[in-house]
Amino acid sequence: MKISVVGSGYVGLVTGGCLAEIGHDVICTDSDLSKIQMLEQGKLPIYEPGLDTVIESNRRKSRLRFDSNPPKAVAAADAIFICVGTPPLPNGEADLSAIDNVARVIASEAHGTKLVVEKSTVPAQTGQQLKRALGIYGRGRSAEFRVASNPEFLREGTAVGDFLHPDRIVVGVDDSETEKQLHEIYRPVLEQKFVCPVHESKCPPFDPPAWMVTTINSAELIKHASNSFLALKISYANMVADLAEKLGADVEEVLQAVGKDARIGTSFFRAGLGFGGFCLPKDLQAFVRLAERCGVDFALLKEAERINQRRIDHVIEKVRRALWVIRGKKVAVLGLAFKANTDDIRFAPAIELVERLTNEGAHVRSYDPEAMEKTREARPKFDLASDAYEAAEDADVLVIATEWPQFRKLDWVRIRDAMARPLIVDARNLLVPSEVRALGFEYHGIGRNEEEPSHARQ
Ligand code: UGA
């Protein structure tokens, strides 16, 4: 099937690359000429494991092309996936102006029947507005539009695998023809019939994805309700951590045991510096605003947001308690990305932490395995080290702000010897306290017993 993907940001590139990977003929388009030129030169504007290989191999097979002319790209397609950004407005609602612009382009270029798939995260009832807009902007033309909502549940860092081995594919449709067309598009994923670019020899066993057909409004609501629930779960974990700290319990032990109950689950249940990124915080806010507009008081979510905003204060207080005075101290921060396996620093708690510590008068030197370039562009004043060891040089404290697994494998003896004082504040509970304490570090985690429990010492 000929598919055009509008918007060459993160979601657009993963969607376009993976749709080509499962055999479709895909054009990714964006009105940002510089982005398209970069992609045509084989460069990716984002770091996403495995995506470069997917894009390159499909470009070579001519199954994936890039075009800086959205009207032309849209006119050639049977199905158009809208993957443009919906950033937050100052009041927290989603800015839908890019979707409106795409609707205008689609309506004025289309002939025949087009399937228009809303993939961007949008508040419920956007599909209805989109349908209306396509009708108005396309007045007097012969085109007919089928509109569907197909929310994405991709996680940055594992997005290619998430696309190809999803637990569910949700399609919000108005009629069976639209469902059939989408089923055809996703058939290789539903039947798991493709050569997997993620798992080299054989994919581990996955349950076949659930094909979930809903109304358009439900599909839109599913996306916001999913992300908001994840945010809620993390905030809950963080509150348990705060309580564990006061009671001399260990949040890691507590949440592991709580999560063993299959109804709760251990996944997405880790305490730390709070959730960031371009999805959870903004989707939570947009969901709260949507509820308010509908006259539903979703105070539960407002509280989750408030808890998350306090996470940075909590870590700064830990640093203050350990250092006594922050002003004039040297702080090494490991991690800048909003989570591991991405170079994305949008709404990254680590970035806010560096800013707050700097405002308190600390000299902060930070390092991230992938996010240095993005940080250099967005925060030119940050003092960036070329590796973790350089960041630790003469530092009074080292703060772990992103859960990169490779930080575990650093030469901690070398770090200890480089630091002015062997002090770690582990805001992601990444390290094993007994191990680093045995090396002579003073260690403070999140919700972890400050006294080493006797069984951990053995
Ligand atoms: C999130 C959702 O997980 C995806 O399902 C969704 O498709 C995506 O948003 C989207 O709407 O596009 P993502 O933004 O990639 O994915 O990031 P997450 O993996 O959700 O992590 C968000 C934040 O929560 C990170 O800052 C991470 O460090 C933090 N986190 C995560 C915790 O603090 N604790 C946890 O247990 C898990």
Care to describe what's here?
With 458 residues, this protein is an alpha/beta fold. Helices cover 44% and strands 14% of the residues. It contains 19 helices and 14 strands. Strands 3-2-1-4-5-6 form a six-stranded parallel beta sheet, with helices on both faces. A six-stranded parallel beta sheet has the order 11-10-9-12-13-14. The protein has a two-stranded parallel sheet with strand order 7-8. α1 packs across α3 (51-60), α5 runs parallel beside α6 and α9 packs across α11. The protein is globular, with a radius of gyration of 24 Å. The structure holds uridine-5'-diphosphate-glucuronic acid. Uridine-5'-diphosphate-glucuronic acid (UGA) binds at residues 121, 152-156, 227, 230, 234, 268-270, 272, 275-277, 279-280, 283, 338-339, 403. Uridine-5'-diphosphate-glucuronic acid (UGA) binds next to α9 and α11.
Major beta sheet, strand line-up: 3-2-1-4-5-6
Shape: globular
Structural class of the helices, strands and pairings? alpha/beta
Number of helical runs?
19
Q: Which distinct ligands sit in these coordinates? A: uridine-5'-diphosphate-glucuronic acid
Mean pLDDT score, rounded?
A: 94
Helicity range: 40-55%
Sequence stretches where pLDDT stays below 50 over 5 or more residues: none
DSSP, total strands: 14
Terminal CA distance reads 61 Å
Rg over alpha carbons: 24 Å
Strand composition percent: 5-15%
Main sheet makeup: 6 strands, parallel
